[in-house]
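User: These chains co-purify. Model them together.
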Amino acid sequence: MFEPKEPQKKLKYDELRIYTDEELNNYTEEELKEFKIKYDIPDVEELEKGPWPSFVADAKREALHRRKLPDDRLLIGKYVVEDTLGQLQLSFEHGEGHWKHGGIVGVFGYGGGVIGRYSDCPEKFPDIAHFHTLRVNQPASKFYDTDYLRTLCDLWEFRGSGMFNMHGSTGDIIFLGTITEQLEPIFFELTHVLQQDLGGSGSNLRTPSCCVGKARCEWSCIDTQDLCYELTTYYQDELHRPAFPYKFKFKFDGCPNGCVASIARADMSFIGTWRDDIIIDQEAVQAYINGEIEPNGGAHKGRDWGKFDIYKEVINLCPTRCMWMEDGKLMIDNKECNRCMHCINVMPRALWPGKDTGVSILFGAKAPILEGAQMSVLTVPFMKCEPPYDNIKELIEKVWDWWMEEGKNRERLGELIQRFGLPKFLEVLELPAFPQVVKEPRSNPYIFWKEEDVPGGWQRDINDFRSRHKR
Amino acid sequence: MALSQERLGRYNPKKPMENRITDLGPRHFWQYFPPVIQKNYGKWKYHEILEPGVLVHVSETGDKVFTVRCGGCRFMTAENIREICEIADKYCDGYVRFTTRNNIEFMVDSPEKLEALKKDLQSRKHVSGSYKFPIGGTGAGLTNIVHTQGYIHCHTPATDASSMVKAILDELFDYFQSMTLPAQVRISMACCLNMCGAVHCSDIALLGYHRKPPVIDHEILSDVCEIPLVIAACPTAAISPTKLPDGKKSVKIKQERCMFCGNCYTMCMALPLADKEGDGVTILAGGKISNRITPPKFSKVVVPWLPNNFPRYPEVVRDVKKILEAYAKDARKYERIGDWAERIGWEKFFEKCDLPFTEHLIDDYRLQYDTYRTSTLFKYTEPAWEVSKAAGGL
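Assistant: Joint model of the two components:
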């Protein structure tokens, strides 16, 4: 149904693996219970208790597994996990972290994807003296097969710490901790064997990410994975070679529920939407009213909220009050609807987004550094969103051209828009002003009129003025 | 082509560009969709949460996919991933998915497989007793807490992340495994305000924060930092150039202007902020991402600072619990924390959550005026009477 940019090698773990089954199962549960790492870590070990999965308990099994592997079956320090836990204990004691600031490492030709990290107490924790991170670009929506994951595990245990983030905040698979020497070999294994590239870091396009989309959601208005994959592969140069003033993020939400939080996290937020009518199954509406189907997909079934009341739970909560009942039927004045998804969320078996779908595009979200947090601003109300997405690429490039021309070092797009004003941004995108771009019109009249806006221009003769007005 | 077991693998340091492959991008997603997902792509008709953590999606073809969502740690080892693979191989034809909020999703296509899968997942515990794959995180409950690196890997943290998340989720575990709240609650955690976790639109956000201005390492500053960039990095213009008695260039800092953002440290390693007494946790509440009923909103600072009491952060856990329990008791169905606070008024939020309102919670940064009350529409709570008394009005 969707074609990859290049044919995908079928990965078979049994053909790719490093470790034998014996090596993988090299400790018993009894040994794990008795296992002590080489440091005294009482505060860290306190975190083994309690019902929530303990990252410490997990780390200790990796530590034991590494201890019991022969020396020549690991290319970096055997005690890397133990040293990480030891340093964590020291950080708790000091109330201060123990990683040095920065460190420029990477792979040839890329300016991102690798984060240099060094311990500031290498004499105490020699196996984390270098502890660099690699960001590995996840497949869209983070579906995997076990051949791929097991191969990653072998690669990363052999050439790195065996510790991961699944996943980092931006979406990448994170390899936590290896030495400088192993960065290139890991990159070569990833590209040659796993046909897998690194993600972004630094002042470049960061690894794009998306929600589960049409793969397993009835509300997605766009092919989030395909759009994510297409823009990621199309903009590989921007992703790997920093040429921007600062980071730039794309995120793709299939509907206004916003499961990947694009509106808060992405410089360019894509949110699926529709422009025709909400689809209604009136029989199912009745079934909800009659209490035959649990509202909100069963999300509230842990508590008795009383009998479902369509007025109380849907019609009167509609932010635009565009719904009513007529002759036992649910009516929607679709031209008044602002597509907030509430009614659809409450009655997923009776209501669906329309079929004429596209994206709303918003720009400028960022975390508080530096001028305060910003959310993305609605800039393109609706855009068709179909391969090869040329309309979207054209828009992206206009934005980048302007930002790269005008943006200061470490200035996010949202800050640049504030500095120049939203009217300027619309002008750059060659878009006319429209009321939806604001929540409300300005309350101050300080309009920056341009000379060409005013008949006769701004050049005036004072003598002409004085001919009518004495001093 | 097997993974190499040579020290430098396929890389030849003498000819670093030889055989280099670049710009491949990610692997293509389609191959990782289980057959039932491939077959029903774009055809899903509706879904239902059968019980906390268990969803069924029904296709217009009649096919069903059952998903079991398990809480995961963002930090996990190869050993843990291999165990996930073992489960996926056993029940899910070798497929598995991770969510944006670090949950793990196992999918099966029949109720029989679902029961066996659930039983297996519930039985798996670490030797120290914690669950490996707790089922939950759906609907009107608490889902997994997304977080940043903290002391595990970051160089600018004001607190640790993995430990705080563990402490809170241990305490609020029942909310993860149930759906008794008025709406979903999203807690997010970032260990400094660089916020690589972008927590600023969460129902409850936990934020590591410094409270001491940078300490200046004059001896090396001019050797390792670009002084003009450091000066420009300060949002309040508190940093200016100076000359040391020995003639060396450095910077000086107007400490009373410091807002502890750490932007200067990002630019210059000679200006560390971290400090045991200074660093701690700020709690924000009432943000959201979704456009449902009300627009997305920012979280607001409701607790200015709590100590980094490692490893269990009892003060942070206590205050998060206060907010969650007051909300659970008082909010209406479908109301998110922020919607609730806006309906009852923030003054009532503080009263109902039993949180003190201090001067730190009044904005005095830019655009502060936007948050001031410019009406007589308020509700009386105890602090209001205190003010009336202090002003001589009572």
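Residues 40 and 86 of chain A are 8 Å apart (CA to CA).
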